[in-house]
Amino acid sequence: MRLVCIRVSAWLCVFWLLAGPIYVSAHGYQVDEQSARRLGDSFSGGAAEARDASTAYYNPAGLIRLKQTEYVTGISLINTQTDFEGGAVTTDGLAVLPVQGNDGGDPDSNIVIPHLYVARPLTENTVFGFSLNVPYATGTDYDRDFVGRYFATESELFGVHINTSVGVAVTERFSMGIGLSLQYLDGSLGNDVNSAGICALAEASGALAALGLPSCAQQGFDTPGTSTDDGSVLVEGDDVGFGVTFGLLYQFNEGSRVGFNYRSDIEHNLDGEAEFRFPAHTQLVLPLADPNLRDRTVDGLLELVTPEALSLSGFHQVNGNWSIQGDVTWTRWSRFQTLTIEPQDGPHIVQPQLWDDTLRFALGTEVRVSEAMSLRAGAARDESPIPDETLNLNFPFEDYRAFSVGMTYRFSDTLAMDVGLQHTLGMEVDITQGTFESDAAILTGTVETDITSFAIGFNLRR
């Protein structure tokens, strides 16, 4: 038997949480909703538009266009509707049995994330920028009787990204920007362990008899597929990493420009703990199948690198009231070919991931309808980095298509409000996950996901 793979599954949960939130998104584990203004045009010109202080995050070279001290702040609400249809099976060693449970109850999530951007001119040709946002934020909570409980039950993720930057005018038309980033991640994840199924496999293989142990029934195990004997795993971890941002902006004239932004990879060594909890009657056989399958807390280290990204954006003012913009962003998700996990008391575990590099395309437009109000809209398409063969319950997505609308209302020369709304077209993914040898269960089903994001922000100039 290869029941040692149960340990791999438990530690792999740390990665799925800290590197991939259950908030379903085709852009890996990143959350785009970092600006109310940008949300309204599907983030279509972030590296080139440079109309407010959020350019400190999207392209620090654009800071040079801001001639006053400016503050941009707001919040984004991300609503994720998730529906699972399907089931799971386990085995008693001889026959295939259904895992008893429901479809997960209501795992939908509503996540609120803040953002703050500051731009302050230092000289005529130098502008300082600061950004504080939350590019990682998610949570989900399946019922304890979920049929997929051996793969996911609950999760929380919170990540803070702080960047200080400076934009410098090199010539009248060309500017450069550079920034230093600090990134903090904190998260937790829970899943159950199929204790009865593991014992049944050990008994069917003859391992119990060879060791002189009583049968599973004699030890007090219920029928595999029930939750009576389930163990549970809760994993937690956090870390701080550092990176850089670099940007370029070229202005053909006041109404046309092109921008480039590079955001570096950030290395994380996530110190984590995994708490294993099991009923007392399971303690005789489970540790023989895998030393981790007993009441204990396991320390470990997960090496995680968030990938670098390159953005190329263009902006053109068609006339005094109408502008258009576009963006292409490449993300190096192919860094996740393998995942290395280092338990404190065991050998390194290498798990294939097979992620692919992705391209995101976005187009947007804005129309000024009055001196006080501007309307905008946009559309985006983002490739999924996960190949079909590694789709799973925590990452059940495909390429996404999103549409956005937004508005800016200027109360005065110094104060404006931005509002954005985006809807991602529903995604439906078929999933087959797990094996009897590694998880003592196999999950088969369909996950449908709808995402709607709303953001409101304020811009203050002094």
From TrEMBL:
<keyword id="KW-0472">Membrane</keyword>
<dbReference type="Pfam" id="PF03349">
    <property type="entry name" value="Toluene_X"/>
</dbReference>
<keyword id="KW-0998">Cell outer membrane</keyword>
<keyword id="KW-1134">Transmembrane beta strand</keyword>
<dbReference type="InterPro" id="IPR005017">
    <property type="entry name" value="OMPP1/FadL/TodX"/>
</dbReference>
<keyword id="KW-0812">Transmembrane</keyword>
<keyword id="KW-0732">Signal</keyword>
<comment type="similarity">
    <text>Belongs to the OmpP1/FadL family.</text>
</comment>
<dbReference type="GO" id="GO:0015483">
    <property type="term" value="F:long-chain fatty acid transporting porin activity"/>
</dbReference>
<dbReference type="GO" id="GO:0009279">
    <property type="term" value="C:cell outer membrane"/>
</dbReference>
<protein>
    <submittedName>
        <fullName>Outer membrane protein transport protein</fullName>
    </submittedName>
</protein>
